[in-house]
Amino acid sequence: MRYQVVIAGFGGQGSVFLVKILALCAGNKNVACLGTENHGMSQRGGAVSCTIKLGDYSNPIIDPSQADLLIGLEKNEALRNINYLKPSGTLAVNAEDSFPKDDVSAKVIQIDAFTKAKNREFPIQGLNVYMLGVVLAKCEDFPFTLEDVKEALVQFNPKVAQENIEVLEKAIEDIKGK
Amino acid sequence: MKQTLMGNDAIALGMIHSNIDMVSGYPGTPSSEILTNVQKLKAQLKLDLYAQWATNEKVGFEVAYAGAIAGRRAAATMKQVGLNVASDPLMSAAYIGNLGAFVLIVADDPGFHSSQTEQDSRVFAKFAKIPVLDPATPQDAYDFVSLAVDISEKFQTPTMLRPVMRVCHARQIVEVKENHEFNPKKGKFQREISRWAAVPRAGRLRQGYEMIDRINAIKEYNWEELIKPEFEACKGGKLLVLTSGTGYGFAKEALEDLGIKADIVKFKMPYPLPENKIREQFANYEHILVVEEPMACIEEQIMASNVHGRLDNTMNVIDELQKIYIQDALTKLGLYKGENLYPSIPFKDEIPARPPNLCPGCPHRDVYYSIMKVFKKKKSIYPSDIGCYTLAINQEAIDTVLCMGASVSMASGFSIADPEKYTVATIGDSTFFHGGIPPLINAVYQKHKFLLVILDNSVVAMTGRQKPPQRQNGEVDIVKIAEGCGAETYEYVYSNDLNDTISFFKKMKEKYENATGPIVAVVREFCVLDKEVVGQHIHGEFAKVIAEECVACDHCTTIYKCPPMGYNEEGKVEIDPFLCIGCGSCLNVVCPTEAFTVDEERSK
């Protein structure tokens, strides 16, 4: 299997956490993976993008036009990284309805998670997990299942796993009802 | 046993599994998590080992190196610019060598992700004449630690492990040793004055010849153990790719993507190379392409007429590798004629930049705001330093950034060069300890007149909140150090009320007028990311903006510049509730029309 994911957000949004979860999913399924993340200056509210390549790869960086999936934790960060996505890939993005879908050649799954968090439908700290739920529900070629992700969340931190699983399930419900 | 590890976790575990029992270093992205992880493993597994931060890289190097002289297995960790600071002991240690193992771990940053300069520490190893190992992945990083220990002990030489950011911060499933029993060595210093304290010229010259012999023996070893098996698997043909470290991953994937058959030889040890034996292989190929980053370390050693790379502009000459550079190189060599597989088509409209900024609630913001308010932009020069506070560049409150500690010495220089202006230098606590003390002594010694503001948040915040000396135990005191250097020293304990901070700097300006040498202001702060102390300082006083009062003057968004402040669709400033942490600092002074007020509902 070969599958490349870019996760784009800004400092504090938890892009790095998502890479860790996906790496755990890969490990549990005995799929090789190679990921990378930005640290340093980009932690302070700057743009942060992380990558994970699942399958037989030898270099952690994803090149332009190569990603199968782009998870955009914020609208502008999604658009900033859109050049990494294959024309046939999928963009899962947290953005208002006005997001310029037509200007993106990939398949777009859009949901306004910020507004839902503002309305206290889920805690904002769970935005990253929420977007992963959206991917699980709507991205057909995504290589992991809901059960795989749940297992990784428990493995990562059993104390907060239940809260995260609730966010994940809430996201799946929301996007299906959309 | 398989574990999902980041490169720096893998290096730390590799150190434990190689029985390295003395580790010292100074934090710096992308190297910082290595020592942090050794400390974690020490606590988790209750290991008997030394793992501590040093005040700077030179000190860290020397502490660990002494351990290796005394027969223990030791390592020093740092980033590439840190090696510049530690270069003095490195150059001598290369002559002297060691009895135990000395592994020098230097993390490089091709592409300047979080560094002032790019630098290639492999070239530094070549300059110093010590062997260097270049891992391509976290798995390599884990494996190469024990290889470095073996080489260091076998040849009695400092041995460098040089991961790049894409190894340190890469994540992979790594095969690691199971049930390792940690077995530290006892140190036993053996007096040998002619070796450990050799003086020029006779003693050092002899050691110089020994070093040359050693490096030649390592070349042989490199060929026999590491390189020969790689060439034996080669087939010959149009193209041979020579590479090391991450270059391997880029080259392998690019050749696969482009459908080009070629032999790839990955050098685990890119210096010292047995250049003649390698050149003998070139007859089997039309072209040799060297893929390495960030400089031409391999290429310089094996230069020949059919070798291409960075030196002849076939590859990129600066910046992190990308597969498109390899595609371009192959196109130039006439080996690829197909379409561009990596077209980068950005979004059609411009996307607003998101420069890194000081965290919401960070006291540095208030300090810089106050300094600028009192000393004025046009009337002063603001040299600063390396650390979080460099981000005050967004407030235009910093004029120069050079290297660790340079704010103080450059303040001396500016005070001489342009005495009509005020010179106000800023430096953090850890950076002051690292490189700021000698220049302060120099300034007192020569009566250079400037204000030095030491922003003491008692944490090395930017690299992951390591504890600096005054935090580890209370015996180191910055105020006493500054006083001991002979500087007129003042202390201010930060308050959330901007009026207080401004009053303090007004007082500093008065002192400045009458001063005959440097004056030092130690500002006692905290870091908002520092969980141990933040609760004592942030009381949940949230701000909101009275829309009718906001005249869109940009003052808060361009001069105070706290991330939650931004314009809404009505053109009024609004506070983003997701970003505001409730420090209340913006409630006074910041807004010229006093539109900021307490958000009673959120502050409850």
TrEMBL record, chain A:
Database matches in Pfam families: POR
Keyword Repeat recorded: no
Keywords, in A-Z order: Oxidoreductase
Keyword Nucleotidyltransferase listed: no
GO molecular function annotations of the record: oxidoreductase activity, acting on the aldehyde or oxo group of donors
Coiled coil (UniProt feature): none
Positions of the Pyruvate/ketoisovalerate oxidoreductase catalytic domain: 11-173
Name of the protein this chain belongs to: Ferredoxin oxidoreductase
TrEMBL record, chain B:
UniProt KW Iron keyword: yes
Cofactor note: Binds 2 [4Fe-4S] clusters. In this family the first cluster has a non-standard and varying [4Fe-4S] binding motif CX(2)CX(2)CX(4-5)CP.
GO molecular function: 4 iron, 4 sulfur cluster binding; indolepyruvate ferredoxin oxidoreductase activity; metal ion binding; thiamine pyrophosphate binding
Pfam families: POR_N, TPP_enzyme_C
Keyword Oxidoreductase set for record: yes
Binding site for [4Fe-4S] cluster 2: 562, 580, 583, 586
Entries under InterPro entries matching the protein: 4Fe4S_Fe-S-bd (IPR017896), HACL1-like (IPR045025), IorA (IPR017721), Pyrv_Fd/Flavodoxin_OxRdtase_N (IPR002880), THDP-binding (IPR029061), TPP_enzyme_TPP-bd (IPR011766), Transketo_C/PFOR_II (IPR009014)
Listed EC numbers: 1.2.7.8
Coiled coil regions in record: none
Residues annotated as domain 4Fe-4S ferredoxin-type: 571-601
Cofactors, names only: [4Fe-4S] cluster
Keywords: 4Fe-4S, Electron transport, Iron, Iron-sulfur, Metal-binding, Oxidoreductase, Pyruvate, Transport
Catalytic activity: indole-3-pyruvate + 2 oxidized [2Fe-2S]-[ferredoxin] + CoA = (indol-3-yl)acetyl-CoA + 2 reduced [2Fe-2S]-[ferredoxin] + CO2 + H(+)
Residues noted as binding [4Fe-4S] cluster 1 in the record, renumbered to the chain: 550, 553, 556, 591
A biological process from GO: small molecule metabolic process
Subunit structure: Heterodimer of the IorA and IorB subunits.
PANTHER family with a match to the protein in the record: 2-HYDROXYACYL-COA LYASE (PTHR43710), INDOLEPYRUVATE OXIDOREDUCTASE SUBUNIT IORA (PTHR43710:SF7)
Function: Catalyzes the ferredoxin-dependent oxidative decarboxylation of arylpyruvates.
Official protein name in the record: Indolepyruvate oxidoreductase subunit IorA
Phylogenetic classification of the source organism: Bacteria, Pseudomonadati, Campylobacterota, Epsilonproteobacteria, Campylobacterales
